[in-house]
Amino acid sequence: MRSYIIAGNWKMNKTVAESVALAKEIVEKTKGISKTEVVIAPTYLAAAKVADVIKGSNVKLAVQDIHWKDQGAFTGKVSVDMVKEIGAEYVIIGHSEQRQYFHETDETVNLKVKKVLGAGLKPIICIGETLDERKAGKLESVLTAQVEGAYKDISNGDALKTVIAYEPVWAIGTGVVATDDQAQEAQKSVRSLVAKLYGEATAEAIRIQYGGSMNAGNAAGLLAQNDIDGGLIGGASLKADTFFSIIEAAEKR
Ligand code: PEP
Asked: What does the alpha-carbon distance between residue 20 and residue 41 come to, in Å, rounded to a whole number?
């Protein structure tokens, strides 16, 4: 039985003080949560302070990316050891905004996934098609390339530590959410792609989140789908109330 994982991706929002305040509210609200894994991903700048706030709580820390190199002349980048030191458990890898604006490719996703797993942390691997790709009937081929690329040379044991976030690019930050059926259909095919690589047992064990305009109003319907094991949430994770409504929707299932 897969447990739900609800993760808030704060992107480039919230100052350090605002991040600390939001983290405190989320810690408070999630005190009674027992079944659902709750994760928040603040900016790097706020991550260490947020780590202090969530220590001993039901909330886990993620960061929004890492570089695959250990250290060196990579201006603006952060290594996996740096985020491990401050207590991050998860790293979001391959977000569509990274792919779209910062030259992320399936190859760099794979390098980062290996680095995160090698450090004993867990990647949340983001995949998803653009609207043009969907309209052109390329959904299956895009997802296949992204899944096969991300998991290249990853062992079965390591694959089991990963989380996948299926995020149709056209639904991210647009307010246009995939229907329950659209999301379920895509996520089912992602699970069968994983099964082709690692077998049914591994595919059944790996959690696949949905991401793309998930909010308090649509979360219950999405989370009721067989192959949706949680959410990666942007906009609706920036307020404790709305984020908590989504957590509650998962907790109630
Ligand atoms: C995201 O960025 O991963 C995301 C799903 O954003 P939003 O919820 O705002 O669509």
From this structure: 12
For the Cβ of 232 lying below 6 angstroms from any atom of ligand 1, the answer is yes
Find where tokens 């089991």 sit: 160
Nearest CA to ligand 1 atom 4: 234
Q: Where are the alpha helices (DSSP H) in 34-95?
A: 44-54, 80-85
67 is catalytic: no
Residue 140 among the catalytic residues: no
Q: Structure pTM?
A: 0.98
Ligand 1 contact, 233 CB (< 6 A): yes
List the chain pLDDT tens, one digit each, 253 residues: 899 999 999 999 999 999 999 999 999 999 999 999 999 999 999 999 999 999 999 999 999 999 999 999 999 999 999 999 999 999 999 999 999 999 999 999 999 999 999 999 999 999 999 999 999 999 999 999 999 999 999 999 999 999 999 999 999 999 999 999 999 999 999 999 999 999 999 999 999 999 999 999 999 999 999 999 999 999 999 999 999 999 999 999 9
Q: In Å, how far from its chain's centre is CA 103?
A: 19
Tokens 């996703």, residue located? 109
Q: What is the 63 CA–ligand 1 centroid distance (Å)?
A: 15
| Of 95, 97, 129, 248, catalytic | 95
